[in-house]
Amino acid sequence: MQRTALRRPLFSSLHTTLVASISATLLATGGSALAQSAQPAPGAKIKVGFMLPYTGTYAALGSAIENGFRMYVQQQGGKLGGRDIEYFKVDDESDPAKAPENATKLIKRDQVDVVVGTVHSGVQMGIVKVAKENNTLLIIPNAGADEATGPLCGANIFRTSFSNWQPGYAMGQVLAERGMKKVVTLTWKYAAGEQSVKGFKEAFEAKGGKVVKELSLPFPNVEFQALITEVASLKPDAVFVFFAGGGAVKFVKDWQAAGLKDKIPLYGSGFLTDGTLEAQGTAAQGLETTLHYADGLTNARDKTFRTDYAKTYKLQPDVYAVQGYDAAQLLAAGANAVKGDMSRKPEVIKAMEAAKVDSPRGVFTLSKAHNPVQDFYLRKVDGRENKVSGVAVKALADPARGCRL
Ligand code: BEZ
């Protein structure tokens, strides 16, 4: 009690002195001292905050994104815009409830210049909100939440991956063109699954198909048996699914174990078989999916990317590694334009908006809403590869409904 009483006058007199001295300095410098204090010291590092899942069903996706990002930075001698990079990390656990607190840690505590995150669409919504409130630069290296480049779009929000609508739309078009009429969908019940199905349905039904039943289970539940039995009883022409990471491995194996692999054609957005083929083994052979990356592309950038990634990490890259690599490329476009001075935000944003990203997937540009305009490949599993068999939709742009930029 006494201690507190003693402290208060001390703090308040210190506070009064500080305020007086800051005010005097501001008056003397015409406010320029304050303006300068917002700028990084010459040669200061660029602070990058990874907010990614490092545990749970999406853990491998988070690591691949970070690997890809770091590899690009290493290839630039560890610098972007002439500045060294300092990394901060938070495991977001794919838990939307923890997203605002985790994003705030990176932005307020670590004072990062840019947040790179995340994988899960529900978590993404929390990050977008905090990034907008603080006007912090955000690069989304996976999560497809349509809102991020739709109604919640913002000048400081960029994405190097896809919107959930995009790969679903591409597959809807493919199945309609194959003359399929009656399709059942099955996903996790959260934005990624629901929005993928929405994109699928939009394209499929516009060309005469019908989604006869939409089935789902909570994320990250993997008790698929009852739903697989229900799908079989509906006797559809085909099934369209969204699953990814560890859940995708389990689903594809359960589908085969239920004896449906050669009975009902199974299709999905490419996350069903990307980064998962080793674990899925024979169960995945022959599966067709649509995605903005594939094995067997012939561009030079992809060839060197794959060789370098295999050499650096002793792993084959997947779509998540590509998206992380491209997040670093996009940041480099901004950082180079301002020689690493990330406080010059309008110029950083302008350069990022104008970037032509030389991605392993093929060169892409960003839409007005800051989402990639890109080709969607049709792929077929062959051994350990999602071999490209064609382009399902060329230069597909998300409709960005509700975005006012
Ligand atoms: C998502 O939640 O947006 C997502 C997660 C994994 C793969 C693709 C999308």
TrEMBL record:
Extract the Pfam families matched here. Answer: Peripla_BP_6
Q: Which residues form the Leucine-binding protein domain?
A: 45-382
Q: Which organism is it from?
A: Cupriavidus campinensis
Family assignment?
A: Belongs to the leucine-binding protein family.
The positions making up the signal sequence are: 1-35
Q: Give the source's domain of life in one word.
A: Bacteria
**Per its UniProt record, what SUPFAM superfamilies does this chain match?**
Periplasmic binding protein-like I (SSF53822)
The protein's matches in InterPro entries, at most eight in alphabetical order, are given as: BCAA_transport, Leu-bd, Peripla_BP_I
Please verify whether the record's keywords include Transferase.
no
Taxonomy, top ranks, is:
Bacteria, Pseudomonadati, Pseudomonadota, Betaproteobacteria, Burkholderiales
Keyword terms, alphabetized: Signal
Q: What is this protein called?
A: ABC transporter permease
